[in-house]
From TrEMBL:
Signal peptide: none annotated. It comes from Methylacidiphilum fumariolicum (strain SolV). Belongs to the SUA5 family. GO terms for cellular component: cytoplasm. One of its GO terms (molecular function) is double-stranded RNA binding. Its main location: cytoplasm. It is found in: Cytoplasm. Gene3D superfamilies: DHBP synthase, Threonylcarbamoyl-AMP synthase, C-terminal domain. This is Threonylcarbamoyl-AMP synthase. It catalyses: L-threonine + hydrogencarbonate + ATP = L-threonylcarbamoyladenylate + diphosphate + H2O. Required for the formation of a threonylcarbamoyl group on adenosine at position 37 (t(6)A37) in tRNAs that read codons beginning with adenine. L-threonine binds at residues 33, 65, 119, 139, 179. The gene is sua.
């Protein structure tokens, strides 16, 4: 059931979601980044159900979503000053901080690590839901493990159709790529996932971050799998369109940006004609998903400039292609 259209007015949908979450069920929620599959973070059984639905290995921890910084702090031991600064600067917003957790957060949430990921999502529906529920929500992206993250309620519906009782429809996710993940399990802090807030921006506030080398830090961030965000159609990164002869374009899709000549491809997705990184991020997963649904044999991808959000989008393109990185 979705609350789309006139199916269920939004207040009723929130009440329904609360009722389901209290019973230990899993519901889908909108955030500013991507849709999440949410369960009561303090209920281990409900979180276990979530892992099961996503087919996610139990070694990959999930993020705890709260309704405000003070709500997060109630579940954290030893808050480092730079973490407090980031929390008060960016929350609600697309930043996840990995912090030492109190015992009230069950071990399944953090995959047995003493540190859990926390964030305050910037979406009015979900903030209201968490505040009214009065409990944090464990929520990974609402896709099956390793697949494309959903940025619309429709995409969640296609993925989990009959498996979950409710999708809260909060419209398309405005940011479109996941939160940046910073771990304070180490000093200096580690950048575990490039995301919507750039490394440069964070370093301006708290000084240098360490970026673990590709394919390392599995013990610190078990989610750093080299293949991720993967469509079922194979993705190949190319460095220029001239590499692809016409005969190869006929049954292929292309994802790129700008105004290059792209004739011959069966399906073309332009992330942003004007080369806006913000627009490209917002379009990325949706366009990848649309390519995946087209009848093509291959998706060719041109990387974006390696700066700011471009870096975060490129990481996702590389993971879709199965090449590794943080
Ligand atoms: O924007 C987002 O962060 C979205 C929305 C729904 O909030 N959520 C999301 O969750 O992307 P997920 O589960 O798809 O990705 C969470 C990432 C994974 O790479 C995971 O390994 C890492 O965060 N992570 C979570 N808890 C962690 C922990 N305790 N230590 C290290 N890494 C952690
Ligand atoms: Mg995910």
């Amino acid at each position: 059931m979705k609350n789309q259209g006139s199916a269920l007015p939004i207040e009723n949908a929130i009440e329904k979601a609360i009722e389901l979450l209290r019973k230990g069920e899993v519901v889908a929620i909108p955030t500013e980044t991507v849709y999440g599959l949410a369960a009561d973070a303090l209920n281990s059984e409900a979180v276990a159900r979530l892992f099961e639905l996503k087919k996610r290995p139990k070694i990959d921890p999930v993020i705890v979503h709260c309704y405000g910084a003070s709500h997060v702090f109630a579940f954290v031991r030893n808050l480092p000053e730079p973490a407090r600064l980031l929390a008060t600067t960016y929350w609600p917003g697309p930043l996840t901080l990995v912090l030492e957790k109190k015992d009230s957060i069950p071990d399944i949430v953090s995959a047995g690590l003493p540190f859990a990921g926390f964030r305050v999502p910037k979406h009015p529906l979900t903030l209201k839901l968490i505040e009214k529920l009065g409990r944090p929500l464990a929520a990974p992206s609402a896709n099956r493990f390793g697949k494309i993250s959903p940025t619309t309620a429709q995409a969640v519906f296609e993925e989990f159709n009959h498996l979950i009782p409710l999708i809260l429809d909060g419209g398309p996710c405005p940011v479109g790529i996941e939160s940046t993940v910073i771990s304070f399990a180490h000093d200096p802090p580690l950048l575990l996932r490039y995301g919507a807030i750039t490394k440069e921006e964070i370093e301006k506030r708290i000084g240098p971050l360490t970026v673990p080398a590709p394919n390392t830090a599995w013990n610190l961030a078990p989610g750093r799998f080299p293949k991720h965000y993967a469509p079922s159609v194979p993705v190949e990164i190319i460095s220029s369109l001239s590499e692809i002869p016409y005969w190869k374009r006929k049954n292929a899709g292309l994802i790129f940006w700008g105004r290059e000549e792209t004739s011959g491809f069966k399906v073309v997705k332009n992330l942003s004609k004007e080369k806006s990184l913000i627009e490209a991020a917002a379009n990325f997963f949706q366009m990848l998903r649309e390519l995946d649904k087209s009848s093509i044999e291959k998706i060719y991808a041109l990387l974006l400039p390696e700066e700011g959000l471009g870096k975060a989008i490129n990481e996702r393109i590389k993971k879709a292609a199965g090449s590794s990185s943080p």
